[in-house]
Amino acid sequence: MPDKPTPGGGNSSGEIAIEVRDVVKRYRTPGRGEVHALDNVSVRVERGQVLGVVGESGCGKSTLARLLTRLERPDSGSVEILGRRIDLAKRRELRELRRVIQLVFQDPYASLDPRQRIGTALAEVLTVHRLPSGTARVGELLETVGLSPATADRYPHQLSGGQRQRIGIARALAVDPQVLVLDEPVSALDVSVRAEIINLLARLRTELGLTFVFISHDLGMVRHLADQVAVMYLGKIVEYGPWDAVSDTPGHPYTRALQAAVPIADPRLDAPPADLVVTGEVPDAANPPSGCRFHPRCPLVEDRCRSVEPLMLPESGWHRLACHVTSSEATAEGTDR
Ligand code: ADP
Ligand code: MG
């Protein structure tokens, strides 16, 4: 199938850590109608690789994170983690898979009990998974994320935002997982602290051989980690490929706009050119636009974009994108050559 991703390169081992096929997830909400949170989303991540998932708020990133970790199940399609169907797993297998894949949230504070010392919180996670939960193991976990074992005696409010996110990561690492889904892990942090956490993640990835799904609304934030990137818009992947290909030759007007918005400290750069400027708000996913969902905001919009939905078509290698105007395949078809 031409729309199936076939990634490779980077730290890849050839073994598939994550295989999401044609996943659909809708939410029926009173008053708002049916929200198309994910529409035919497919991704494949080899073991040891980092997939960056990027797009504006509301495009379905957290929904994907919840399906990957089985906090929710898809309406259709499949989710495989290291070859096992987590979307279908029953109790025992699910318990095993919950040790294989872990989710790290944007705000670990929200899931920490303010009255509980950090050491107690970490020991609790270990106990739930029937793992050794003594002081030594808790201290080891804290050191893994760059904190002193003495942090175990602290309460959440005594920690900085960066330290709390380290605790969030330590908690995920407690079960010795192989895959981490990181849902905007640095979005709430100060810029200087962001770099520290990204560096920590880069180190952990190498030392522990982890596979990451790194979610961000900001394309620039994933550049330090991602081997491949999926750009999402209103529940769909609109461009997908190796990081270098997507960042060097972004094809979808939405990707180009996201990239133009990446702050670049170069005074010679003026405002982005008009064909990169995307205006307006993201439409409601309960009522997605016809044709290409991006067309009402697209600077390159043509007639067919309003009525015909573009397919994901290959550019080069497995880099692919869905755009009537910029896709080389779509253009070739349209120009009668
Ligand atoms: P993102 O993480 O990219 O901001 P989400 O996955 O959180 O996006 O949301 C995608 C869409 O699904 C949004 O329109 C959101 O309002 C909707 N949505 C997410 N979760 C629910 C839910 N539990 N009930 C109803 N709508 C939801
Ligand atoms: Mg989200």
From TrEMBL:
Compartment(s) where it occurs, according to its Swiss-Prot or TrEMBL record: Cell inner membrane
Keyword Kinase in record: no
Catalytic activity field: glutathione(out) + ATP + H2O = glutathione(in) + ADP + phosphate + H(+)
Entry GO MF terms: ATP binding
Keyword ATP-binding: yes
EC number from the UniProt entry: 7.4.2.10
Keywords: ATP-binding, Cell inner membrane, Cell membrane, Hydrolase, Membrane, Nucleotide-binding, Repeat, Translocase, Transport
Main location: membrane
Domain ABC transporter: 18-259
Domain of life: Bacteria
Entry-linked Pfam families: ABC_tran (PF00005), oligo_HPY (PF08352)
Family the UniProt entry places it in: Belongs to the ABC transporter superfamily. Glutathione importer (TC 3.A.1.5.11) family.
NCBIfam families: oligo_HPY (TIGR01727)
Assembly with partners or alone: The complex is composed of two ATP-binding proteins (GsiA), two transmembrane proteins (GsiC and GsiD) and a solute-binding protein (GsiB).
Protein task: Part of the ABC transporter complex GsiABCD involved in glutathione import. Responsible for energy coupling to the transport system.
This protein's name: Glutathione import ATP-binding protein GsiA
